[in-house]
Q: What sequence folds into this?
């Protein structure tokens, strides 16, 4: 049987970690996973619907479609699963407008109600989806990593030789800049500090040396293992509540203690004082970095506990079997007969969105 994933673009990080990571588990239940970038024009969309109709089940990942696009998707798909790992019902933290968006909420509500199942990356997203649709169709599916792919950090450096790591993309770079105050303070206290920046762009930060490393799926794990401390920052913004902590999971899988601000999933992923530190002010950040830089044994112990936490709660091997079972059960004839009444879209809504493209 074929599971078709409609994704944002080829190799998108959300697809790799939330769906492709479970390809083996799906295969063990006789499902083959295929990904296709979501069509961008009306003509492409009408063509893509033929592929949708031929698939045994379809996963729409993250995107919120205009009403008539969504209606056609629902009519064409035998089984429709909606997967999200961001608060798509808000504008993101980089937007100039306020986070709240009535259009996004309308599209989110319609998508959740029409889907046979919803897989949400954290509890906040799951609760929001449940509030707009039948709670029994909403399932929490955390973003996962395969710890076996990550070599462990050695933790031999000390003091100003300690190496920080930040992994991300140009779109998340503003979050790193928000941590600049604490990083600068740590650099001043230690008389120098290096930040390994694993990204598709680079940046200059005060009081520390930035060592850019071009991101690659083939080298990211090794680059993290050659660092000592992972750092993460989430803006105090509604969008942040939907983040699923991928960079934190990658740090922990590589055996790095993590320093992050106490926002969103940071609070549940990082056990303060055990697998890292939750710090907010520049002074707290500098103090946490200074303490870890002075004690390689503490970093190694925290990193080991972090790795164990990932293996126990966020490993692809654990959640892959659950996801495959969910696809299997959702596609069973008894479950997948979505009532036609849920397919109806008001005529005025169809006309209003007829000329819009997906968001």
A:
């Amino acid at each position: 049987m074929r599971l078709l994933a409609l994704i944002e673009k080829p190799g998108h990080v959300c697809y790799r970690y939330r769906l492709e990571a479970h390809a083996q588990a799906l295969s063990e239940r006789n499902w083959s996973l295929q990904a296709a970038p979501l069509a961008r024009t009306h003509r492409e969309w009408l063509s893509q619907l033929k592929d949708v109709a031929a698939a045994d089940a379809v996963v729409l990942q993250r995107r919120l479609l205009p009403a008539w696009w969504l209606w056609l998707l629902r009519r064409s798909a035998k089984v429709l699963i909606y997967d999200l790992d961001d608060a798509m019902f808000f504008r993101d933290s980089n937007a100039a407008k306020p986070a709240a968006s009535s259009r996004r909420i309308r599209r989110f509500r319609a998508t959740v109600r029409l889907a046979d199942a919803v897989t949400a990356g954290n509890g906040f997203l799951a609760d929001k989806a449940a509030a707009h649709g039948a709670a029994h169709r909403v399932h929490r599916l955390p973003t996962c990593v395969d710890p076996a792919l990550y070599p462990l950090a050695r933790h031999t450096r000390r003091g100003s030789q300690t190496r920080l790591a930040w992994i991300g993309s140009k779109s998340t770079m503003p979050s790193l800049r928000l941590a600049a105050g604490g990083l600068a303070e740590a650099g001043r206290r230690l008389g120098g500090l290096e930040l390994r920046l694993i990204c598709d762009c680079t940046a200059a930060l005060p009081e520390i040396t930035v060592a850019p490393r071009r991101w690659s799926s083939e080298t990211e794990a090794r680059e993290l293992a050659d660092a000592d401390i992972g750092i993460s920052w989430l803006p105090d913004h509604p969008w942040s509540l939907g983040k699923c902590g991928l960079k934190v999971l990658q740090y922990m899988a590589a055996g790095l203690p993590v320093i992050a601000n106490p926002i969103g999933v940071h609070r549940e992923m990082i056990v303060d004082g055990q697998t890292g530190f939750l710090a907010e002010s520049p002074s707290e950040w500098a103090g946490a970095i200074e303490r870890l830089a002075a004690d390689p044994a503490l970093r190694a112990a925290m990193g080991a506990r972090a790795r164990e936490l990932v293996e126990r709660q966020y490993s692809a091997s654990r959640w892959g079997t659950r996801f495959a079972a969910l696809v299997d059960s959702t596609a069973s004839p008894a479950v997948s007969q979505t009532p036609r009444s849920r397919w109806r879209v008001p005529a005025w809504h169809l006309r209003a969105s007829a000329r819009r493209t997906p968001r």
User: Anything to note?
Assistant: Residues 296-313 form the longest helix (18 residues). The chain has 16 helices and twelve strands. Confidence is low (pLDDT under 50) at residues 336-343, 345-355.
